[in-house]
Amino acid sequence: MHGPDVGMAGLGQLPVQFVDQRPECTDEQEGKLEAGTIGHDPMIADIDDIDNQVYGLDNQVVEWRTSMPFPQTVTLAATRRTETPNAAMTTLASPTLGSTQALSLWRVEMADSATGPEHAFDSEQVWTVLDGSLEVQADDHEQQVATGDTVVFPAGVTRQIRAVGPVTAIVAGYGAARVQVAGEAEDRGTPAWIA
Questions:
Q1: CATH of the domain at 139
Q2: What is the DSSP secondary-structure string of 126-194?
Q3: Which of 9, 115, 140, 195 has the fewest CB atoms within 10 Å, counting from its CB?
Q4: What is the pTM (predicted TM-score) of this model?
Q5: Residues 52 and 82 in one domain
Q6: 190, part of any domain
């Protein structure tokens, strides 16, 4: 076993993460680690067994986790809708909704010919067109993004997006992303639909 490995715990057990910090070990010790035969079960330890057991390995660190992450559900009622002159954005998951630590996911709906301002974000974004088509102008490069296509905008790339017919897209990005609109001296901060 090299590097961290996490065992899954059942009721009445704690998950254990073994961090191998040994410079080297014998073939016999390595074999026991790989086979999982050191101690009663090196991947799961009963609560009663948390009494500084040593499994015969030098310099092995055992980290006990007391809480496991669990899936978060954002109900339709908890989503947030923000409207601008160019589009309507529905926040599906974001740090302020409490569902993620750093990522955001939102739906964009644009009417035919709606055009957003020239702008750039300080982090990348991934757009997938669910219905309709977009014309994307990004740093002197123009492309069509059709239904089912995905476009990845790198951080700092100035872009302008125009709907060709009604458009629905899903966008993912960093939840603290800041936007800079072309021609404005100060950035506008993090848009409400991303935060």
A1: 2.60.120.10
A2: EEEEEEEEEEEEETTEEEEE-TT-EEEE-TT--EEEEEEEEEEEEEEEETT--EEETT-SS--BS-TTT
A3: 140
A4: 0.64
A5: no
A6: no
